[in-house]
Design a protein that fits this description.
Layout: H1 4-8, H2 12-18, E1 21-23, E2 26-27, E3 40-41, H3 71-74, H4 80-96, E4 101-102, H5 126-141, E5 146-147, E6 165-167, H6 170-188, E7 192-194, E8 199-200, E9 203-204, H7 209-219, E10 225-227, H8 236-242, H9 253-265, H10 270-293, H11 300-314, E11 316-320, E12 332-336, H12 338-341, H13 361-365, E13 371-376, H14 387-398, E14 402-408, H15 427-439, E15 443-448, E16 463-466, H16 474-483, E17 496-497, E18 515-517, H17 526-532, E19 536-538, E20 549-556, E21 560-567, E22 573-582, E23 594-603, E24 608-614, E25 621-624, E26 629-632, E27 635-644, E28 647-656, H18 671-675, H19 683-690, H20 716-734, H21 740-746, H22 752-755, H23 763-774, H24 777-803
Parallel strand pairs: 3-4, 4-5, 6-8, 6-18, 7-10, 12-13, 12-14, 14-15, 15-16
Antiparallel strand pairs: 1-2, 8-9, 11-16, 17-19, 20-21, 21-24, 22-23, 22-27, 25-26, 27-28
Helix pairs in contact: 2-9, 2-10, 4-5, 4-11, 5-6, 11-16, 14-15, 20-21, 23-24
The structure holds beta-D-glucopyranose.
Beta-D-glucopyranose binds near residues 42 and 229.
Length: about 800
């Protein structure tokens, strides 16, 4: 232990108190032991420090900061060096605002395009996610403060996010949902990591010894602090025993008493508390010192410029028929679409930044060299049909050489706390596109959305440019791409499926029960489409440029591939060279190919460069459930290098020496996993892969029953609460504006009442409520009252003792 001296100065109660937050975003301090309090703030694409009333849903305003493009956007740059620059700038702003721990980046694997927080995550591919996230962490921590990669792990949907159980087989867990975190931990050494809300195979992530001890600390060597997600602690004592360092936000005295009682009863050892405290003190003392040393200002203009460059490097040109783009100077353009005036540039929820300034597409067009014939909003942002707006836009379209049509998802379609219900653009936007295109075939669609969309309307536009959620300076970058000042070089970090019905997790995403079955196994994103032979609209890694690149002269062995890339066009550009590994005729089933290396190469017109892609320990490995370790199947592998997952330009066969482990699947019938056709895996086959029966999914009346499940209880009071909340939620949906607060409460388990109320509600009171819901109305009520009085008295006594320590 590093901090034995400080720890021995503390009594058990003081030690336990330090392991949970003081306020929504600060830790407790202890003057006598020289422990300062530190501030943790969101988030992943800019600092959200709340100076006034604090909340974890981004409802109240925060101190102005630079809003960088979200992770889903920057992932399209495939440029870790850029990620590191953004990280450094965010770290600088955080430290300047006295934030010691920045809660990001988010790197959960995009299992389904519908996850409401996909805009906050990088990719469907763990290698790309891990590399980008590691770069952010290095950048943030270069300022001396701590990053906090999140949410560890298997947290790929918002529905029932605090009480859903992600049921996943160990190989899929390791290869798809943990590999990104492994890369971050091993390559960037984050000082903190946030555990996720959900359970994994029946055990809450935050108290999961397999996850936090065996894998995170022992296998990967993580020596930082694990921070709970806000309200994500279930059994605090078990969390502490199994590797969770700091419970947030501020559960009050109850959490302190829970730990004390656990030590006294022998449920956990005092040594567990000391071990966690040692981790916490390292985090607190290091980052506090860094904040103290740091200047209180930063260059907001420079950060705006960086945000603009980042957005520009991340724009993906999806379609460009007849080389409509770039538009020549003086082109007469009609600007259509509400988003041109009111940009959609970030997501909703805890990542929402109070941007220092926000550029709009309309303003940025002014000095672009294009000649605007006018602007028409064209559609109602919330999807209501509006014939007059449409007619005005169509008339304008007819007057121009080309139309710049700004479409996208509105704010509420993708948000923390809420999954999307489909992958569609609003009908009124599609109708507008059709009408505009009839008036002017030179229609360029500019899409702002943090996740993939269905594009049945693709034939109606000549060019399609994806700006994702480009941050506060994204609009200017987009204008630069349209005029050719920037040659787009971004590529998709997520497949765009033809239809939601084609996606692999379709039948097991955000279902009615608590259990989320990850039945599709390894076949997420391109791993599925390419193995099962399902056509897609735009493949993973796809992106066009205003120039062309040729690939030649590849030499490869099991350690690297070297090739030449030449810019054969007439303007400078950047190419993202991707290397996929395939094993034809593999004995152990595996996706058709997997991304294992990539590089972004900037080339002047006519220039050639030699590119070397290095293969690391993850290139050929698979997780063997029989030996419980990483193994390599020996034999011939194919290295496929190309411009996208579907545009392979060069291949090389390499021989790889295997580890000769026994095939864990020998003698087992896994035909769907062999073929990759995993949309309809039968129960028996899924159980074979899982190695156990599918867990029971009945609603239980316990501390983890969600408020949205109270209708399953036996209490009229519970039914009433449920009815009122459901009515409020439905009303907000009808208005087209789901109420995030109600939604959060709806998906919140009863125990979170004790975790999210600054100590006003204790776990004893929650147990009283559970009794009430179980049908013991009188005893339940009496218990709630008794526990409430007890809580007030004990809290006051505790706070008094802590204040004087
Ligand atoms: C989110 C986290 C966030 C935290 C604090 C939670 O609701 O899941 O990502 O960091 O709130 O705002």
């Amino acid at each position: 232990m590093k901090h034995t001296d400080s720890i021995t100065k503390l009594n058990l109660e003081q030690k336990c108190a330090l392991l949970s937050g003081d306020t929504v975003f600060t830790t407790r301090g202890c003057k006598n032991a020289g422990v300062p309090s530190i501030t943790l703030s969101d988030g992943p694409n800019g600092v959200r420090k709340q100076a006034g009333a604090a909340d974890h849903l981004g409802l109240n305003p925060s101190v102005p900061a630079t809003c960088f493009p979200t992770a889903a956007t920057v992932a399209c740059s495939w440029d870790p060096a850029l990620g590191e620059e953004i990280g450094r700038a965010m770290g600088e702003e955080a430290a300047a605002q006295e934030v010691a721990v920045l809660l990001g980046p988010g790197l959960n694997t995009k299992r389904s395009p519908l996850c409401g927080r996909n805009f906050e995550y990088f990719s469907e591919d763990p290698y790309l996610s891990g590399k980008m996230a590691a770069a952010y962490v290095r950048g943030i921590q270069s300022e001396g403060i701590s990053a906090c990669p999140k949410h560890f792990a298997v947290n790929s949907q918002e529905l029932r996010r605090m009480a859903s159980d992600s049921v996943v087989d160990e190989r899929t867990l390791r290869e798809l949902y943990l590999t990104g975190f492994e890369i971050v931990v091993k390559e960037a050494h984050p000082k903190a990591l946030m555990s996720s809300y959900n359970l994994i195979n029946g055990i809450y992530a935050n108290e999961n010894a397999h996850l936090l001890q065996d894998i995170l600390r022992e296998e990967w060597g993580f020596d930082g602090a694990v921070v709970t997600d806000w309200g994500g602690s279930n059994d605090h004592a078990l969390g502490v025993k199994n590797g969770s360092t700091l419970e947030m936000p501020a559960p009050g005295g109850d959490a302190v008493r829970e730990l004390l009682a656990a030590v006294r009863s022998g449920k956990i050892a005092e040594a567990d508390v000391d071990a966690r405290l040692d981790e916490l003190l390292t985090l607190v003392l290091d980052t506090h010192a860094a904040v103290e040393r740091h200047s209180r200002s930063f260059d907001a203009d420079a950060h705006h410029a960086l945000a603009r460059r980042a957005a520009g490097e991340s724009v993906v040109l999806l379609k460009n028929d007849d080389a409509l783009l770039p538009l020549a100077e003086g082109t007469r353009v009609a600007v259509i679409g509400d988003f041109a005036e009111t940009p959609r540039y970030q997501g909703a929820g805890s990542s929402a930044v109070n941007s220092i300034k926000v550029d709009t597409f309309l303003d940025c067009l002014n000095d672009s060299g294009l000649h605007s014939v006018g602007f028409a909003p064209g559609f109602d942002r919330q999807g209501k049909p509006d014939a007059a707006k449409q007619a005005e836009a169509v008339a304008l379209a007819a007057e121009a050489d080309a139309v710049l049509l700004c479409l996208g998802l509105d704010e509420i379609k993708e948000s923390e706390g809420l999954d999307r219900s489909d992958m569609k653009l609003a009908d009124n936007q599609i109708e507008l596109l059709q009408a505009v295109r009839e008036a002017n075939p030179n229609t360029v669609v500019i899409v702002n959305a943090g996740a993939s969309l269905e594009t049945p309307w693709l034939a109606h536009c000549k060019a399609l440019v994806y700006g994702a959620l480009g941050g506060q300076a994204g609009a200017g970058a987009m204008v630069d791409v349209l005029t050719g000042k920037i040659n787009p070089g971004g590529k998709l970090a997520e497949t765009w499926a033809n239809a939601y019905a084609d996606t692999p997790a379709r039948d097991h995403f955000a279902g009615p029960g608590r259990t989320v079955q990850y039945r599709e196994g390894l076949y997420v994103g391109y791993r599925y489409y390419q193995t099962a032979g399902v056509p897609v609209a735009f493949p993973f890694g796809h992106g066009l440029s205003y120039t062309q690149f040729a690939y030649s002269d590849m030499h490869a062995d099991a350690h690297s591939a070297t090739l030449t890339v030449t810019n054969t066009g007439d303007r400078a550009g950047a190419e993202i060279v991707q290397l996929y590994v395939a094993k034809p005729n593999a004995e152990i089933f595996r996706p058709a190919q997997e991304l294992k290396a990539f590089a972004k190469v900037k080339l002047a017109a006519g220039e050639s460069k030699t590119v070397t892609l290095t293969l690391d320990d993850k290139a050929f490995r698979y997780w063997n459930t029989r030996t419980d370790s990483w193994e390599v199947e020996g034999g011939t592998y194919e290295l496929r290098v190309g411009a996208s997952s579907a545009d392979i330009r060069l291949t090389a066969a390499v021989e790889v020496i295997g580890t000769d482990a026994l095939n864990p699947y020998a003698g087992k019938a896994l035909p769907h996993y062999q073929s990759g056709k995993v949309q309809t895996v039968p129960d028996a086959e899924w159980e074979t892969l899982l190695g156990r029966p599918i867990p029971d999914d009945r609603v239980k009346i316990d501390r983890n029953m969600t408020l949205g499940e109270l209708n399953h209880g036996r209490s009229p009071l519970g039914w009433l609460v449920w009815a009122v909340m459901t009515a409020r939620l439905n009303a907000s949906y009808k208005k087209g504006k789901p109420d995030l607060n109600v939604l959060f409460q709806y998906n919140m388990p009863l125990r979170a009442l004790a975790k999210m109320t600054n100590g006003a509600i204790s776990m004893g009171m929650v147990d009283g409520i559970v009794m009430e819901v179980q049908g013991f109305w009188v005893i339940g009520l009496v218990r709630v009252i008794f526990e409430a009085v007890k809580n007030v008295i004990l809290n006051a006594q505790l706070e008094n003792r802590l204040r004087n320590s």
